[in-house]
What does this fold into?
Amino acid sequence: MKYSQATDYALHVMLYLTAAPTDKPVGVQLLAEKLGVSQTYLSKMMTKLVKAGLIQSAPGANGGYRIRRNQDEISFLDIIHAIEGTASLFECSLDHGSECQIQRVVIEAERKMEQHLLNTKIADLAKPIKTE
It folds into this structure.
């Protein structure tokens, strides 16, 4: 299973913002430099995180982004859903109804993966970074 490059960037941005001091927002230029991507591309991805309520943007010369929600509650799944949406990764292409045994197996695997991503909080990864 493969997530988009935007999801990869979003996870890294969220880790960086979670580890950053909360007293001032982090500019998109700094974030783009850290990830090695264009500011335009990153700004579009950041808009999805803002719409999902995970981060907030502060306009102006000293503006940027900061975590909006309690960072201890933000899961990998929250970030992935903000970028990728919530649709199932697997759709059975045969027209034989909801009794498809193959689809049941794949959907159960998705549920287990989603539960793991839901239980894994981005702040857990940021703790070692904050102490360094």
